[in-house]
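Structure request: Rhamnulose-1-phosphate aldolase, Sodalis ligni.
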Amino acid sequence: MQTILSSWFVQGMVKATTDMWLKGWDERNGGNVSLRLTPEDVAPYRAEFSPQPRTESLTQGVPELANSYFLVTGSGKFFRNVQLSPSDNLVLLQVNAEGNGYSILWGLTAGGLPTSELASHFQSHVVRKQVTKDSNRVIMHCHATNLIALSYVLDLDSARFTRELWEGSTECLVVFPDGVGIVPWMVPGTDGIGAATAEQMESHPLVLWPFHGIFASGPTLDDAFGLIDTAEKSAEIMVKVRSMGGKKQTISREELIALGRRFGVTPMAAALDVQND
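Returned structure:
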């Protein structure tokens, strides 16, 4: 008999968190992932749900997510351990009918709570669900090394940061034509940073937390992971370019426009209009 441990969503989360740890993006308990599930996704596993689910309140209500199911990484849990014990490091929860709390249906067998960034995740889920007509189901946060490094040396301006990444690798404009949003440094785990991130998520599937990490959204775990992986690869290239003395040549505005035309995407206009120094 198939169990929840062998479900596509638990196995997908195991793979994603393991890959993120192997990339060096999620040291210790850094990073968090949430996957929105449908009633049909979880229906085969109801027999494994806790008979008396623990309930918790939300600091900020999300009525738009009422009754929704989520698979989420746990607070204080190490990504490197998810593959060893998914049931201790992950949690399946359901938002209540009012959207002001949730029930823990499965997971966190040794106790604990979902990620401390749950408020940020939920606020971004609300926005991405709306702007993508329900297709985006994943919010992924990690400490991508080179994106963090660039946040110390580039202007913290969405258009300029996006342009730098587009020039770092030809595929970037095609993968994230809407660019990268940026929020100012804020204390993590608060409703404030969640609201600021969600505001940027209205226009960008990638949002940079300077000196901290990156948030990504996508329809699947692979899509969100691939979005971060592509941006981080470009950031790594640009870190190396800067260490070698800077650019002597790069992809031009006209070439970026041609690239967008060829692949049928509309590039972020403000990033196209950035004037190279």
